[in-house]
Design goal:
The structure holds three protein chains of three kinds. By secondary structure, chain A is of the alpha+beta class. In chain A, 24% of the residues lie in helices and 34% in strands. In chain A, the strands form four sheets. Chain A has a six-stranded mixed β-sheet, sandwiched between helices. A five-stranded antiparallel β-sheet of chain A has the order 13-12-11-14-20. In chain A, strands 15-19-16-17-18 form a five-stranded antiparallel β-sheet, with no helix packed on it. Chain B is 76% helix and 0% strand. The chains are: A alpha+beta, B mainly alpha, C mainly alpha. Chains in contact: A-B, B-C. At the B-C interface, α1, α6, α7, α8 and α9 of B face α1, α6, α7, α8 and α9 of C. Chain C: It is a multi-pass membrane protein.
Chain lengths: 350, 293, 340
């Protein structure tokens, strides 16, 4: 009932391109996350869906109607804003009731609907307070409650967790996931935090500079990044990327030499691998270089080298000790390596 | 002020304090002096013999029997009908403030929220209009106003003052609205409001601090105006400021300069009270609005 | 925001500004090219018992009809701009030829009404603006360095000269410097000249007007700078202190650069306001010694015969003056915006 399609959507301000030829088909009941660094066009895309920005080119189709020229109020959506947009002069109860009031929902239904939303967001104790008397987490829940009080076809959430502290973010994240699976409403969620994206999404859209970089499930994106941008954006720490040359299945860069790679491609190649896949060895490692730093993370230690221009890190057990400047070796088997074309940044299929 | 970087050695403190005391004397003394003097007779207020007469009211005592006299006030308010001017000023100020703010909040809100280029041009034109001395515009009003019989009425003056103040009001309210997060009206629009409903239900309840500050400045502009009111109002519709100016022409010859002095004190008193109650808003308007009337 | 909603929201303001600011400017410009109709004169043959004589008389009816038909008056082109009361090309040329040396030329120029007004307006603007900024800055620094207790009253009393109606504020000062007022008597005592009168001396009158200007405007500069001082970055101040900067160097390298944008802002506002100086000249009854462009317009409009065209021409010249004064600021604003 609420499939959301974006066809060749563009947003330009004068000569500046905000969103470039965006195509996406969001299924009913899907939880879709738009992920990217700030200024990549993800918020603009969401605001175009909401009707808060005009679409320069292309079509946005909600259900079976083109909504390009509809006012936000006529699109049957609800939205949670980054700074929540709570009405400071209204109580929690009245804030949540506001959409019902302005949409002329029959008065006798209000109380039941508002109370249901208040229960779902666990705001019973605060319902007669004003936003100024609430903590950040409570305000965030009021914004959520206001979004779910009626049954919209699409939920839009614009970085709803970015104003919360780290601990609260984890619990609210779980609450959002739980609410969405209960309500089964199509959801578009914007964030710059890749952990939020990985934990919440059915599908993730990674964006950069107004363009879609990759669309896929969290696992796809983690395991098979489509280009160096996605590789360096997803994962904590992000994927190590070393520039070098590939010749006859052997990759050579400063302080690193990996053999047994496919013989097909050659030339300037960027080699990528994840810190947790590699390990420190005493001899015969593919990396052999002076150590740049060692950091104790608690559950593990992080060893870093400086290879060419790039910092390369791998995780090892927490008991490992070495001095800065000592030559340390690490094994990088061909099986954990990803290859990217250095010039274009695109992934080379193995 | 606990930081060491902002603490001052005693010599500097003494210098700063004495400089301030001098400035305060310069700023406040003329008002206190005139207030005191307005209760004397002219011979004391302008004393050729001894300046201290103004303090002790030697001649006032000789002429009226007391150290203080309200003769100036009586002359101005009753004899010269200054109350009529005060009434006109009240009418003009009330209407100018109401109309200015009504038009200004609508326009200022739109200018703060529009991201289009023409909003910038609109503000730039308003800034240029703001720079026009009112008197140059007045010379453009007179002929059409005579032709269409609009000259002399209070309502013409109200509309003219509103229009002249509009660029300033727009700038100030525009910067106040910029400080109201746009998430607020956008969430109202997503919740089911039109742009105007969002303005009415969500923005109006939270805009009062900015509107009150802007209203104070609109009031000041209307209250203090001389160029427009003196040129566009007929004698019976005069407001306080042109009335005071006309005292200078007529009463001085009659030796009733004290009428003017007490009228001046009467016109200053409301402003004094205003500064007392709205000091914070005036300061915030001067700084936050980044514009001055 | 949608174009249509923007349009409806700004409509009332736009109409007001078009009708009462933009249209009057147009009307002033066109008025300045016309001059009042001369009276229609008719020759009447007057025959009496002692024979006939020709008499001239004013045909009131025809004059009124003509004025009714063309309220703007007779087209005069640039004549009004060129006459003695405005740019006075003829008189300036004559003065240039007849004068011996620049100072003498300047003196004859100051006898022409427009140049006299222009001279005072520019001097006033050039003197009052920087003095206002300096005084405001020092008061702000001083308030910032004294105990909190003095701050409230200082701000309260400092606001008064600015808030009070310019006409009223200047009257108050004028009465005090009157030869019989406290400051006037004080000046006489100081100079030991019992006949000293501010009203009678051009130089003293100019000084008094400018003193009033600074007195009136300094509080504005003070408030803006004081607010600016509250936002000086304490970390930067402290690091300057750790780096070994003296008190003066801290002001010079941290505080002043921080306030510089505000100085530009205050200067812009002050230029606009000082250029239109007007009310104090009315209050001080100073027109014999000092007039300004605004006062010249007021004078033309206020007389028995309202000299609309003359006022219009002065207005146009004033507007041109303001445009020149503001052009650097406007160009900069436009460039800043364009870069965004």
């Amino acid at each position: 009932m609420a499939r959301l399609q974006l066809k060749n959507v563009n947003k330009r301000w004068g000569s500046f391109v905000g969103v470039d030829n965006f195509n996406l088909d969001i299924a009913d009941e899907e939880f879709l996350v738009l992920l990217g660094p700030s200024g990549c066009g993800k918020s603009t895309t969401m605001r175009m869906i909401a009707g808060l920005e005009d679409v320069t080119d292309g079509e946005i189709i909600l259900g079976d109607r083109v909504v390009n020229d509809l006012e936000p109020k006529d699109r049957d959506i609800s939205m949670v804003f980054q700074s929540y947009g709570l009405y400071p002069n209204l109580t929690v109860y009245e804030n949540i009731r506001f959409p019902l009031r302005v949409r002329k929902v029959p008065k006798e239904k209000h109380d039941e609907m508002v109370m249901k939303a208040i229960h779902m967001t666990e705001l019973e104790d605060f319902m007669h307070r004003r936003p100024a008397e609430l903590s950040g987490g409570q305000r965030q829940r009021v914004a959520l409650g206001r979004a779910i009080v009626r049954k919209p076809t699409v939920f839009l959430m614009d970085e709803p967790l970015s104003n919360l502290d780290a601990k609260l973010r984890v619990s609210t994240r779980a609450q959002i996931k739980n609410l969405q699976s209960k309500l089964k409403t199509t959801t578009v969620y914007v964030t710059h935090d890749q952990i939020e994206a990985m934990t919440l999404a059915d599908r993730v859209v990674v964006m950069n500079a107004g363009k879609i970089q990759q669309v896929g499930t969290p696992t796809d994106i983690y395991d098979m990044p489509a280009n160096t941008f996605v590789a360096s954006f997803i994962g904590s720490p992000a994927m190590n990327l070393v520039e070098g040359a590939l010749e006859g299945g052997t990759f050579t860069g400063e302080g690193i030499r990996v053999e047994g790679l496919p013989t097909g491609p050659s030339g300037n190649i960027t080699l990528g691998f994840r810190a947790e896949d590699a390990e420190i060895v005493d001899t015969g490692g593919q990396i052999s270089a002076p150590m740049y730093s060692i950091e104790l993370l608690g559950e593990a230690s992080m060893i870093t080298w400086r290879l060419g221009g790039a910092l390369v890190s791998i995780k090892t057990n927490k008991e490992y000790r070495a001095e800065i400047g000592d030559v340390v070796q690490a094994s990088i088997p061909a099986s954990i390596c990803h290859l990217f074309d250095t010039a274009s940044g695109e992934r080379i299929a193995l | 002020m606990s930081s060491k970087a902002t603490r001052q050695p005693p010599t500097i403190r003494i210098m700063a304090t004495s400089f301030l005391v001098i400035w305060l004397l310069v700023a406040a003394f003329p008002f206190l002096w005139t207030l005191w003097g307005s209760f004397k007779v002219e011979g004391d207020f302008f004393s050729k013999a001894n300046w201290a007469n103004a303090l002790f009211g030697t001649l006032t005592q000789a002429e009226t029997g007391g150290s203080f006299t309200g003769a100036g006030y009586e002359g101005a308010w009753v004899q010269e009908e200054f109350w009529r001017a005060a009434l006109n000023t009240t009418i003009v100020c009330v209407f100018v403030v109401t109309v200015s703010l009504t038009c200004g909040t609508l326009g200022g809100y739109a200018l703060a929220r529009s991201t289009h280029r023409y909003a910038f041009w609109f503000l730039l034109f308003a800034l240029m209009f703001r720079a026009m001395p009112p008197i140059t515009l007045v010379s453009g009003y007179l002929l059409p106003f005579f032709e269409w019989n609009l000259w002399g009425h209070l309502y013409t003056t109200v509309i003219v003052l509103v229009a002249i103040n509009q660029p300033f009001t727009l700038w100030m309210l525009h910067s106040f609205f910029k400080n109201i997060p746009k998430d607020l009206d956008e969430s109202a629009m997503v919740d089911g409001c039109t742009r105007f409903q969002a303005f009415r239900h969500v923005i109006i309840p939270v805009m009062w601090p900015g509107v009150i500050t802007t209203g104070l400045f609109s009031f000041l502009l209307a209250y203090n105006d001389f160029a427009v009111t003196t040129m566009l109002l007929s004698k019976e519709n005069q407001t306080m400021i042109p009335k005071i100016a006309s005292f200078l022409g007529t009463t001085q010859t009659k030796g009733n300069v004290m009428f003017a002095v007490s009228a001046v004190v009467s016109a200053t008193a409301p402003l004094f009270v205003m500064v007392m109650f709205f000091q914070r808003q005036i300061v915030s308007g001067l700084t936050a609005g980044a514009v001055k009337g | 925001m949608k174009h249509s909603s923007f349009f409806w929201f700004v409509l009332p303001s736009t109409l007001l500004m078009l009708a009462f600011i933009a249209f009057p400017i147009v009307s002033v410009v066109s008025q300045s090219f016309y001059t009042a109709h001369e009276q229609v004169v008719v020759q009447v043959k007057n025959c009496g018992p002692f024979g006939c004589s020709m008499e001239t008389s004013v045909d009131q009816e025809a004059t009124a009809a003509l004025r009714e038909a063309e309220p703007l008056g007779k087209f005069a082109g640039l004549d009004i701009y060129k006459d003695r009361n405005h740019l006075a090309f003829g008189e300036v040329a004559a003065a240039w030829v007849n004068s011996d040396g620049l100072p003498d030329f300047g003196r004859s120029l100051m006898n022409l009404p427009f140049y006299k007004a222009m001279g005072f307006t520019l001097t006033y603007t050039a003197v009052v603006t920087p003095l206002t900024i300096l005084l405001g800055f020092f008061v702000a620094i001083a308030v910032n360095s004294v105990a909190k207790a003095l701050k409230g009253p200082t701000i309260f009393f400092s606001l008064l000269p600015m808030i009070v109606t310019p006409l009223v504020g200047s009257l108050i000062l004028f009465w005090m410097v009157d030869a019989r007022g406290i400051l006037g008597t004080g000046l006489q005592w100081l100079t030991d000249d019992p006949n000293l009168s501010v009203k009678a001396s051009t130089g003293l009158m100019w000084i008094m007007l400018m003193v009033y200007g600074v007195w009136h405007a300094a509080p504005f500069a003070f408030v803006v700078f004081y607010a600016g001082l509250q936002t000086v970055n304490t970390d930067t101040l402290e690091s300057a202190m750790v780096d070994g900067a003296t008190r003066w160097e801290r002001i010079r390298f941290v505080v002043v650069p921080h306030l510089l944008p505000l100085v530009t802002f205050v200067a812009l506002i002050q230029l606009m306001d000082n250029f239109r100086v007007f009310e104090p000249i009315v209050s001080f009854q100073a027109s014999a010694h000092a007039t300004s462009l605004s006062y010249a317009i007021y004078n033309d409009l206020g007389g028995e015969t309202r000299l609309l065209s003359s006022a219009a021409a002065t207005s146009v010249l004033t507007i041109i003056g303001i445009a020149i004064l503001l052009s650097p600021v406007l160009v900069r604003t436009w460039r800043d915006f364009d870069r965004k």
